[in-house]
Amino acid sequence: ITAFNINAAARYLKFHNIATAPTAGTGVTDTYLIPGNTAGAGFVINIDKGITFSTGIGITLVTGIADADTATVAANEIVLNIYYK
Q1: How many CA atoms lie within 13 A of 64 on its CB side?
Q2: I need a labelling partner for 57 at 20 to 30 A (CA). Which of 2, 9, 49, 84 fits?
Q3: pLDDT per residue over 31-56, tens digit each?
């Protein structure tokens, strides 16, 4: 996973175990903080053993850490790449 944020405030990547488009604020299985910095900040994570999703992989990007958060991020502030095999 690579995620970068050009907003000054932190943003959050949420994973959902779902076969359809996820709804922000429901069914969150994992949360990752994407640090904020107007010059760009973020993370690169290699998850060697992977994360199990028995139904499907859904993602949402929100402005709050709470699993129930539904506030969406602005357009063009996050660059996200998720690699899977």
Answers
A1: 8
A2: 9
A3: 999 999 999 999 999 998 888 999 99
